[in-house]
Amino acid sequence: MDYKQTVTAVLATALDGQLTADEISAKLERPKTSDKGDMAFPTFTLAKLLHKAPQQIAQDLAEKLDTTAFEKVEVVGPYLNFFFDKGAYSEATLNTVLTAGASYGQNEDGNGGNVPIDMSSPNIAKPMSMGHLRSTVIGNSIAEILTKNGYHPIKDNHLGDWGTQFGKLITAYKLWGNEEDVKKDPINKLVEYYVRFHKEDVDKPELDDVAREWFKKLEDGDPEAHHLWEWFRKASLQEFNDVYEELGVKFDTYNGEAFYNDKLAEVVQILKDKNLLVESQGAQVVDLSKYDLNPALILKSDGASLYITRDIATALYRDRTYQPAKNLYVVGSEQTYYFKQLKAVLKEMGVPSADDLQHVPFGLITVDGKKLSTRSGRIILLAKVLEESIKLAGEEINEKNPDLANKQEVAKQVGVGAIVFGDLKNERTNNIDFVLADQLKFEGETGPYVQYSHARAESILRKAGNVDVTAAGNQVADPEAWDTIKTLADFPAMVKMACDELEPSVIAKYAIRLAKTFNKYYAHSKILTEDADLPARLALVKAVSTVLKESLRLLGVQAPDEM
Question: Which residue intervals define the domain Arginyl tRNA synthetase N-terminal in the entry (predicted)?
């Protein structure tokens, strides 16, 4: 039963066309506590229209309302407070959840439209640090949320496997590296060389010239440069995939920057044909002054391509291959200006999906308030953080439930889930200062708290045995259950909102809210009492378990049945 529509309809009748249904619906509010009703209509904005005091308007409307669908309607000052019929509402909500199961909240708004998601995208020959976590888990959750809303996401790990950093890395390897050391510990050795390059080139700026020469050789197909690049790429991918497996993240394509090398000439030709390329100090640029943006540098004076050249080729390829409904780039907020330039160039080129290109920015992840940087050598390895988190989760579980059968597997689900949830509960544009111990707490707004709430629900169902909750009337009369039932009913709207805003925190915050209302209900009510209402109470527990598990799944977090 959609009470928002019901409230809107009875108000529309009472107002006799003075406000449209959409205008009424937009004004409806959710009271902070259930004792003030389940939905409220403020009458302030009607004062000018009706030339009456808001309190009088509320009184007059109350007398005209058809209240048969509600438990009661109260006038409190300028507000009309609607109290839902708890029996009918709980039955309708629980039956809907139990019938749909994991599909509850699913909609087909996306009509199967393709949505490539540029996400994760670590640079080859550098380890995945905590700085890579956000793009990876935000992109992965957005993909799950899009699927729930009827879209077809295409997760594209656009690897940073090309660019001037390879000139620097090859230079460093030629100067200070050896094959045997790299084979023993590829990523850490390569990072060591890369960091040393940036320290040495402060006093030896000529190293930058050597690096540029090596990158140009790589672009021109020099065998030695290409062999080193291929070796660095393969070693990096092996290490990346270990981390992705731990996080439970899979990709549909790994088309890195190098994939687009043979597509750059066409980009330049299109820009030339449309008279968009302008020479500036020997380089080739696109003038974007009509967009109030700086020129986009397409080719350097030596003819070498830039990041944006390859991104234009990428966008063109995605446009032709996927005909995207949206084209998403889950990339840090510091790149906002760059994506405005990229979108403007694509619009000038006439790329059909240019208007659908959307930068999905996110804030920094810091440790002790300091930004992470490979160049400066300040790196906290993501693999090490996950390992430590799993270890600490295992210790916590061992203390709480030493007889748990599959402790190691559950420790992994909780440890990894804590890191992922800890990121996604924050609005993505906010900066995060990472503290591992805070993420792993079993109380408070954490992943383990939500997972534990799900496990508690499953434990209750196991203790109850084989009670058929689907055959129950499922009218839960217990007032302590009311907030939980209303929260369950909110889930489909949260799924839509998370999709509209491309904001996983909507789901994470919802999961915390549902867990809190359920734990409050559990603390105040004897669920397993043998009486006529037992099946209805268990139906509520089953619904909570189902929706918590699905909420966690949308975030890329697993939900153990025991903890």
Answer: 5-84
Q: Alpha helix (H) ranges present in 277-335? A: 307-322
Digit-coded pLDDT (tens) for 285-306: 999 999 999 999 999 888 877 8
Amino acid at the residue 265:
A
DSSP state of 296: E
Sheet of strand 432-433, all strands in order from the earlier edge strand to the far edge = 370-371, 365-367, 432-433
Yes or no: say if 326 and 356 are a contact pair by the CB < 8 Å rule: yes
CB burial class (10 A; 0-12, 13-18, 19+) of residue 5? Answer: exposed
Contact 159, 121 (CB under 8 A): yes
| Diameter over CA atoms, the chain | 87
Distance from C-alpha of 421 to C-alpha of 304, rounded to nearest angstrom = 41
- Contact in structure between 163 and 215 (CB atoms under 8 Å): yes
CA distances from residue 497 to 139, 149, 510, 561 in whole angstroms, order as listed: 16, 10, 11, 28
**Which of 144-153, 260-269, 340-349 shows the lowest mean pLDDT across its residues?**
260-269
Q: What is the pLDDT of residue 1?
A: 60
Which residue(s) pair with 115 in the sheet? 153
Judge contact between 495 and 149, C-beta under 8 A.
yes
Tokens of 522: 């559990």
Residue 484 · residue 517 · CB < 8 Å = yes
Burial class (CB in 10 A: 0-12, 13-18, 19+), 126: buried
For residues 83 and 191, give the distance between their C-alpha atoms in angstroms, rounded to a whole number: 62
Cβ atoms of residues 250 and 296 within 8 Å: no
Residue appearing with tokens 């800890």: 422
Q: Report the amino acid identity of residue 489.
A: A
DSSP string, 418-448: HHHHHHHTS-TTS-EE--HHHHT-SSSSSHH
- pTM for the model stands at 0.91
Q: Confidence class of residue 372 from pLDDT cuts 50, 70 and 90?
A: low
Please state, in angstroms and rounded to a whole number, the distance separating the CA atoms of residues 301 and 318.
28
Q: Which residues contact 502 (CB under 8 A, 6 or more apart)?
A: 142, 145, 328, 358, 360
Across the strands, what pairs with 358? Answer: 328
* Structural tokens at position 177: 């590296």
| 370 membership: H or E segment, kind and range | strand 370-371
Q: Which two tokens stand for residue 349?
A: 């080129």
C-alpha span between 38 and 1 (Å, rounded): 14
Q: Residue 379 in 3-state DSSP?
A: coil
Yes or no: say if 544 and 386 are a contact pair by the CB < 8 Å rule.
Answer: no
Classify 124 as helix, strand or coil: coil
Band (220; pLDDT cuts 50, 70, 90): confident
Q: Is pLDDT of 471 > 70?
A: no
- The total number of residues written for the chain in this structure: 563
Q: Running DSSP on this structure, what letter comes out for residue 7?
A: H
Q: Beta partners for 546?
A: none
Structure token digits, residue 510: 């919802």
471 neighbors 23 (Cβ within 8 angstroms): no
Strand partners, 129: 381
Tell me the three state secondary structure of residue 548: helix
Cα–Cα dist 529/467, whole Å: 13
Strand pairing report for 370-371 and 79-84? unpaired
